[in-house]
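Every protein is a chain of amino acids, and every chain bends into a shape of its own. The fold becomes a row of whole numbers, each drawn from a learned catalogue of backbone shapes. The protein below has been through that process, and both of its lines are reproduced in full.
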Amino acid sequence: MSEDEWKAVSGLVADLMKVHTRPFVTPIVHEEAGKPPKIGTGTYVDFRCGGATAVGVVTCEHVSREQPLAHSPMGTTALLSLMGNVISDPEPIDAAVVRLNSSTWATQANEAQLLPYQRFAPTHAPVKDELLFFRGIAGENAYVGFGGFDGILTGYCSQEKRDTGDDRTFEVFWDPEQTQVTSGTDPGTRERVKFSDARGYSGSLVWNTKFVEQGCDINGWSPDDAVVTGLLRRWDPKTKTLIALRAEHLSEWFRGSI
């Protein structure tokens, strides 16, 4: 496969994954008078299919500690109070779940959907140079005011940086100067979206698309094949990577906490 062919097919994977994950993902916003809003990303998850009794929003602990919080489910431009029992653990886990009761979810869901817990991989185990995907919102693409929200949630395909990370984390390439907009990006988003600052992606789930694992066959692959392989926690501009918690540590934390 030539470089141009690879760029085209990876862009198509990104576009398909953006559509697939759109209902699960929400911006998380903390507003404080006289200060710029703090932005993070969350994912609606149904833990009931994993044996727990909860549904909730998965994000990072350093995002959840900023209270009060608001979210904006798919289908609404309003900011809704994100209220519920917060279960969290700071570094080295840096993960959190804001539990939602059934009545809250029913009244606020709009077009949003719950991601089944079975979509979380037991371990971070992508094949070499696999396409990894994440969806979230950078703070520079969020516009907040008067209880309303206007923002661009973006989805990206990238790859794990070779020979990095450790038994707890892995690193995903993130170089703003190398970012390319896919052919499926609508013109309005193309004109507005910014790439210089990844802050706000904290809390985004990282997906192992399994596209490379399945032979790079766009006709035989589906976004339904993808599994969650980690949780983005922070951006490191020096290494041009996003640091993510490996799936095995995230799953272990879920089992002991939710």
In short: The first helix runs from residue 3 to 21.
